[in-house]
Amino acid sequence: MSRTMDRLFRARPDVTDAIDRDALFARIVATPQDQEQPQLSRSGRRRLLIGCIALAALCLTAGTAFAVTGFNLFGWHTDTTIVKSPREWQRLYYDATRQLTLPPGEHWPDRTLPPNTVTSRTQPGGEAVAIARTAWECYWVDAIHHADAAAGRQASAALDDLLAHHVVVAPPGSPENVAPPAGTQPPFAIFASDGGIQYIRKMYRDAADGHPATLIQSCRANGPVGTR
Amino acid sequence: MTHTDTQAESAEARFAGVFQNLGSIVRYAAARGSSDPEGIAAEVMTIAWRRLPSLPADDPRPWLFVTARNLLMAERRRTGRQAPFDEQHAETPAPEAESGDPAVTAALMQLRPADRDALLLVSWDDLTPAQAARVAGISPVAFRVRLYRARRRFEQALSAQLAGTNGSHTVEMEST
User: Fold this and answer.
1) Which end of chain A, N or C, is less packed with Cβ atoms under 10 Å?
2) Cβ-based contacts of A25 with chain B (< 8 Å)
């Protein structure tokens, strides 16, 4: 120890106290103790803080990955595969038509991929679903006009089946090239989560209840030119 | 004997170990200029008993000193509020280190509070650097660096004090 530090040590004040230690001890231990749980130690708090920071970083990373690279919510994901060959498009469309039914007397229109166009692999099936839906809606409208209740019931059942098995609703905020979970049986049309599917269901319910105005309007808007 | 009785005895036995630091806390508070060092120490022990389960089991001394320091600061705030306006704004620093050696006291008061605290925790309060680091709330490595610098500054300040004292003594001698 240097002379200076020795001098500092010797300068320590000499304190004597007049505390009656036994009495103070007895008085203190006679008081109640706190019932609270032991708090986290400093190292425990530090570990907790590090855990929180790691969790926040993980959420941030996952969020960024979700937004940028290919989000995956309950199996929904972005579909980066594309179709650019008309022949491939027509094959997918043809496969879809074999899974769907059209009203009696209708036939599948010839469709193809326009030149200089690319699309997703689910789009040909979605188009086939849309064609079938419009065809059945117009068939139903015809049935109403001709008071053909059996045909109306047939159309209603076909449309219910389409909505139940060939329409999927993407999660809110999905990108444009969203695809449903692997294993979803094609063909299917992908609806945005914007209330469109509810609107269509209500349109069919109303038509079945004798209020076909919206259904007629839909057929007129989406059906072949000059229909109904 | 019930389970509760056993628990109470166990707590008292543990607190007896903590209570042995009473004298150290009195010295700590007195050396920092407390107007009631015994009261501060008694309050520290009362809090320690109340919060006994929260006290570090391995070494409660740093916890006791931190509590004492907080009580000292509260005492100073109270004193400052109660002091007349002129005293509140006086330039004289608070008596944070009162020793029996005026030159040492003067040298200590020239240090930054953090340096002074580091020096005194080790030299007056018999804390190890690791314990003192916990009181200061910094890592042991950072504390050792602070202590090293504080020692150097103290030595310079004390040398200056002694030179000044000798100088003024010489002048007095010459004038007589």
Assistant:
1) N
2) 15-16, 19
Give the distance between the most distant pair of CA atoms in chain A: 118
Tokens of A82: 């594309």
Q: What ipTM score was computed for the predicted complex, to two decimals?
A: 0.77
- Say which residue the tokens 């020096």 belong to: B119
A167/A188 Cα distance (integer angstroms): 5
Chain A within 8 Å of B66 (Cβ-Cβ)?
no
Give the closest residue to A155 by CA, choosing from A176, A173, A171, A134. A134
Cβ–Cβ gap A8/B37 under 8 Å: no
Mean per-residue pLDDT, B18-29: 92
pLDDT in tens, A22-56: 999 999 999 888 875 556 677 788 888 899 999 99
- Other Cβ atoms less than 10 A from the Cβ of B53: the count is 15
The C-alpha of B31 sits at a distance from chain A's nearest C-alpha, in angstroms, of 6
Helices marked H in chain A: 3-10, 21-29, 42-68, 86-99, 123-145, 149-165, 196-208, 213-222
Using one digit for the tens of pLDDT, what is the confidence trace for A105-163? 888 998 888 888 888 888 899 999 999 999 999 999 999 999 999 999 999 999 999 99
